[in-house]
C-alpha cells in the first residue's frame, strides 16, 4: 500500500467517524487540545481547559444538539464541571466568543431567524445580535466583602450548575445568546428548549457556539439544545435532577408551567407596556420615541410601546407628530376590520366567555401586511400603523405584538394613569411617560410598579439603547429578578474567617 493511499484511507475513516458523531471534518476539531489562542489561566500560566480535557464521553460530536432532553442535561452537567476547571478565564473566554460570534454572524443569523419565524424585521434582527456585545459578563460578579473585629467574610456569587432555559419565538437566537452569556459568566451550563416555530435557527447557532467553545476550551456541550423541542422535552428538563434552576422567557403559558414545575424559576413573562403623554414635554420627541419603540421588530419586543394615552388638548398635535415620524393613521372602520383579523376567539377558553387570542397570521408582520388586511395603501417606508381607540379596545387590552398602535384620549393625568395601569394587566413589566412634570412621573411609577419605567425615551432606552444601563432579552418581571445579568444565575455563598486576616 502506498503512502498516498493510506493517507487517503485515514482521511476517509476520520471523515466517516466524524460524520457518524454529528460533526464534519471541516467544522470543528474533535481533539480536546485547546488552540494556540486559548485563554490562559493567570494563576499558573496554563491554557485554560487543559486542567481537565473533555473526556471521551459517549456524547462526543453532538456539539450541544440532542434529541433526548435527559441526555442533554447529562452532557450539560459534564460541561459545567469542565467550565469550573477552566476557571474565571474560561468563563471570560466563553462570553467573548458568544459576543463576537453574534456580531460576525448577525446578518446571516438574522436572515435565518426571519426565514424560519417569518416575524419581525431583518434590520432589527441584525441589531439584536450585534447588541449582544452590551450584555454584562464576568465583570458583573464582584464578591461582597465584610471586615471587622471578628475577621473577614466574603459572600461569593457561585453557579447553580445546569440551568434549564426556554426561549421565545420573538427573539430566538438573541435570547439564547444572552442567556448563555449571563449563565456561563456565572459558571453555569444550560439546556435550552426553544420555541417550536423558532428552534431550527437556534440549533444552528447553538452548534456553532459549542464548536467554538470546544476549539478554545475543550468543552463540547456547554449550551445544549433539544431538537426538536416539545412540551415533553420541557417537562423532562424541568424534572431532571441535574437541572437546578429554570429560566423561562415567554408568555403566560410558559411562566405558569415553570412556576408549577416545583423547581426554582426565573420567569421573564409577558408585558403590555402603556405610554402616557401629558403634554408638558416635547410632543415631537415623544412621537419620535413612540414610533421608534413600537415599530421596532414590528412591535415584537415585550418592552415595546403597546398603547398610548394622551391628554385631550394635545391629542391632535401628537397624532400629527406620529405621522411626521413615519406612522400611518387608520380610520375607525379600518381599525375594526384589523381587530377582526388580529384577534381570534377560540371556543373553550374562558369560563363561557371566550378569551381573545392574537392571530399568528398578523403577529410581527410588516405594516404593509396589516394595511392590506384592511384594504389600505400606505406609503413606502411606513414604520407603524396608528389609530384612535377607546381605552377598553381589544388592541389596548391585549398584547398585540404587531405594528398597529392604539392611541387613546384621556381627560386628566389621573385618568391616564388609571387606564395605563389597567392596560398593563398587572404584569409589572414596562411603562413609559413623556413628561417634564415630576409629580406625574412619580404618580405613574408608583401606581404601575413596573420593572422598567422610562421617562422621555423609547422603550429601548430601558435596555441601554439611548438610555444608561446594560441590556438583556430576558426581563424577569414575574419573579422579580429584573433585567437578567450574570448575578441572576448565582447562589450566594458565604465564606467566614474568624478573628484573622483583617490586616489592620
Ligand atoms: P410563548 O409563550 O408562545 O412561547 C415562549 C416559549 O415558551 C416557547 O419556547 C414555547 O414553546 C414555550 N411554551 C409555551 N407554553 C408552554 C408550556 N405550557 N410549557 C412549556 N413551554 C411552553 O411566547 P412567544 O410568542 O414565543 O413570545 C412572546 C411572549 O413572550 C410575549 O408575551 C412577550 O411579552 C414575552 N416575552 C417576554 C420577555 C421578557 O423578557 N419578559 C422577553 C421576550 C418575550
Structure description:
The radius of gyration is 25 Å and the shape is globular. With about 500 residues, the chain is of the alpha/beta class. The model is unreliable at about 1-60 (pLDDT under 50). Helix 3 runs antiparallel to helix 6, helix 5 runs parallel beside helix 6 (about 200-215) and helix 14 packs parallel to helix 15 (about 440-450). It has a seven-stranded parallel beta sheet, sandwiched between helices. It starts with a helix and ends in a 6-residue tail after the last strand. The chain is built from 15 helices and 20 strands. The protein folds into two domains: about 60-270, Aldehyde Dehydrogenase, Chain A, domain 1, CATH 3.40.605.10; about 275-465, Aldehyde Dehydrogenase, Chain A, domain 2. Nicotinamide-adenine-dinucleotide binds near residues 166, 170, 250, 473 and 475.
Give short descriptive properties of this protein.
504 residues; Aldehyde Dehydrogenase, Chain A, domain 2; 2 domains; seven-stranded parallel β-sheet; six-stranded parallel β-sheet; 15 helices; 20 strands; binds nicotinamide-adenine-dinucleotide
Indicate the topology.
Blueprint: H1 3-21, E1 65-66, H2 69-104, H3 106-117, H4 122-130, E2 144-148, E3 151-159, E4 162-166, H5 172-185, E5 189-193, H6 199-217, E6 223-226, H7 231-239, E7 243-249, H8 252-259, E8 265-268, E9 274-277, H9 283-295, E10 307-311, H10 315-324, E11 327-329, H11 332-342, E12 343-344, E13 357-358, H12 367-373, E14 384-388, H13 394-397, E15 404-410, H14 413-424, E16 430-434, H15 438-448, E17 452-455, E18 475-476, E19 482-483, E20 490-498
Parallel strand pairs: 1-6, 4-5, 4-7, 5-6, 7-8, 9-10, 9-16, 10-15, 11-14, 14-15, 16-17
Antiparallel strand pairs: 2-3, 3-20, 12-13, 18-19
Helix pairs in contact: 2-5, 2-6, 3-4, 3-6, 5-6, 9-10, 14-15
Bound molecules: nicotinamide-adenine-dinucleotide.
Nicotinamide-adenine-dinucleotide (NAD) is lined by residues 166-170, 194-196, 231, 234, 249-251, 253-254, 257, 268-271, 302, 399, 473-475, 477.
Amino acid at each position: 500500500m502506498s503512502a498516498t493511499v493510506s493517507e487517503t484511507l485515514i482521511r476517509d475513516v476520520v471523515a466517516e467517524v466524524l460524520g457518524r458523531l454529528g460533526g464534519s471534518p471541516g467544522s470543528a476539531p474533535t481533539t480536546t487540545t485547546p488552540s494556540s489562542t486559548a485563554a490562559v489561566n493567570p494563576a499558573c500560566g496554563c491554557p485554560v481547559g487543559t486542567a481537565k480535557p473533555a473526556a471521551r464521553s459517549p456524547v462526543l460530536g453532538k456539539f450541544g444538539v440532542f434529541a433526548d432532553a435527559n441526555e442533554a442535561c447529562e452532557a450539560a452537567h459534564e460541561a459545567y464541571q469542565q467550565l469550573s476547571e477552566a476557571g474565571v478565564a474560561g468563563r471570560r473566554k466563553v462570553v467573548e466568543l458568544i459576543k463576537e460570534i453574534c456580531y460576525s454572524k448577525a446578518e446571516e443569523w438574522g436572515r435565518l431567524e426571519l426565514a424560519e419565524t417569518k416575524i419581525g424585521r431583518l434590520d432589527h434582527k441584525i441589531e439584536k445580535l450585534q447588541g449582544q456585545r452590551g450584555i454584562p459578563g464576568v465583570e458583573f460578579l464582584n464578591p461582597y466583602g465584610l471586615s471587622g473585629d471578628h475577621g473577614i467574610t466574603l459572600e461569593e456569587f457561585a453557579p447553580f450548575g445546569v440551568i434549564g432555559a426556554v426561549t421565545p419565538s420573538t427573539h430566538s437566537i438573541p435570547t439564547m445568546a444572552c442567556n448563555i452569556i449571563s449563565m456561563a459568566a456565572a459558571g453555569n451550563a444550560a439546556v435550552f428548549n426553544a420555541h417550536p416555530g423558532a428552534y431550527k435557527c437556534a440549533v444552528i447557532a447553538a452548534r456553532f457556539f459549542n464548536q467554538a467553545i470546544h476549539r478554545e476550551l475543550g468543552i463540547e456541550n456547554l449550551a445544549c439544545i433539544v431538537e426538536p423541542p416539545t412540551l415533553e422535552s420541557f417537562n423532562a428538563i424541568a424534572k431532571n435532577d441535574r437541572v437546578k434552576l429554570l429560566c423561562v422567557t415567554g408568555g403566560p403559558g410558559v411562566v405558569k408551567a415553570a412556576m408549577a414545575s416545583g423547581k426554582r424559576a426565573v420567569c421573564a413573562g409577558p408585558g403590555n407596556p402603556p405610554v402616557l403623554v401629558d403634554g408638558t414635554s416635547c410632543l415631537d420627541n415623544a412621537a419620535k420615541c413612540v414610533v421608534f419603540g413600537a415599530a421596532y421588530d414590528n412591535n415584537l419586543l415585550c418592552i415595546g410601546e403597546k398603547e398610548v394615552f394622551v391628554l385631550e388638548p394635545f391629542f391632535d398635535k401628537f397624532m400629527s407628530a406620529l405621522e411626521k415620524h413615519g406612522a400611518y393613521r387608520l380610520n375607525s372602520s379600518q381599525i375594526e376590520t384589523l381587530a377582526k383579523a388580529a384577534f381570534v376567539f377560540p371556543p373553550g377558553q374562558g369560563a363561557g366567555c371566550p378569551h381573545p387570542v392574537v392571530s399568528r397570521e398578523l403577529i410581527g408582520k410588516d405594516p404593509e401586511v396589516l394595511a392590506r388586511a384592511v384594504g389600505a395603501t400606505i406609503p413606502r417606508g411606513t414604520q407603524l400603523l396608528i389609530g384612535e381607540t377607546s381605552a377598553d379596545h381589544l388592541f389596548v387590552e391585549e398584547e398585540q405584538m404587531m405594528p398597529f398602535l392604539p392611541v387613546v384620549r384621556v381627560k386628566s393625568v389621573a385618568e391616564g394613569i388609571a387606564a395605563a395601569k389597567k392596560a398593563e394587566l398587572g404584569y409589572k413589566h414596562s411603562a413609559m411617560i413623556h413628561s417634564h412634570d415630576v409629580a406625574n412621573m412619580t404618580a405613574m411609577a408608583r401606581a404601575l410598579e413596573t420593572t422598567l419605567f422610562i421617562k422621555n425615551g423609547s422603550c429601548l432606552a430601558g435596555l441601554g439603547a439611548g438610555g444608561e444601563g446594560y441590556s438583556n432579552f430576558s426581563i424577569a418581571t414575574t419573579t422579580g429578578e429584573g433585567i437578567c445579568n450574570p448575578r441572576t444565575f448565582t447562589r450566594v455563598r458565604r465564606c467566614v474567617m474568624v478573628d484573622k486576616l483583617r490586616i489592620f
